[in-house]
Amino acid sequence: MEVFLHKICGQPVQPPVSMQLRRCTPEQAPAVYALQNEVRAAMPDPEQFVPDTLENITAYVRNDLCIGAWQGSRLGGYLIVRFCGRSAHNYAAFMDVPRTEWEHWANADSAIVHADFRGNGLQRLMLEAALPLFPKKITHIGATVSPQNQYSLHNALASGFAIVSRREMYGGHDRYLLAKAL
């Protein structure tokens, strides 16, 4: 899916810059991992985002879904969606959803956009690109966001997510749990 960016590094550009939103391959997992670490290192408070290992990212790309925002060979953003089924890793487990319904939930596990490409709605666009690739049985999607990460929280709310609760997750990190019906 081709999208056009109207801002680069926060400044308007003319003509718009083209990016491709496409499913990442396992061979691209190192690029996803590198972008995760680059963006996290530049955050004012890196605790707002709990990083994942290269091994886990590779497994997610292989077994779940990762949409990348590519400008040529440069990865400018990604969205990882996990299909956890009845696993305790399913965010539905933390939202009082009956276990029998967990298989109908997906996790918006992480969304990263490089600072150069922010302000173009890429998180929302990557989610839109991912939705047609979901298994048909998925009816809801859950997400977590640090209350201090106002940019990601705003993007999630603008994408139709609603805050369900607030709790400690990921080894003691304060998080909002969000849900969206599809």
Automatic annotation (TrEMBL):
<dbReference type="InterPro" id="IPR016181">
    <property type="entry name" value="Acyl_CoA_acyltransferase"/>
</dbReference>
<dbReference type="InterPro" id="IPR000182">
    <property type="entry name" value="GNAT_dom"/>
</dbReference>
<feature type="domain" description="N-acetyltransferase">
    <location>
        <begin position="19"/>
        <end position="182"/>
    </location>
</feature>
<protein>
    <submittedName>
        <fullName>GNAT family N-acetyltransferase</fullName>
    </submittedName>
</protein>
